[in-house]
Amino acid sequence: MMRRILMWAFAGCLVAGFWAAYAAATFPTPSISGDPTVSILINVTCPIAFASFYFHFGVKIYWAVIANAGIYASFGLVVEGLRQRFAHAK
Question: From the centroid of its chain, how far is CA 16?
């Protein structure tokens, strides 16, 4: 189970890293403001970005990656715990 939770945390790092690379690639004119689909995807896949937009505070990229890894690991802990519980129920 620990390995699966680490994989969830690594997935969180990859997602936040992807959004950081996307923001760096589109820096002068980010398409986040023009396309609502991109902003919805960012808010769903990187909850710390949603919190920083909502509460009006800046987050450094490395803190966003660490926070996203922690959020994904917590979500993975819940999902893997439920998965094991339902696997034993069969």
Answer: 6
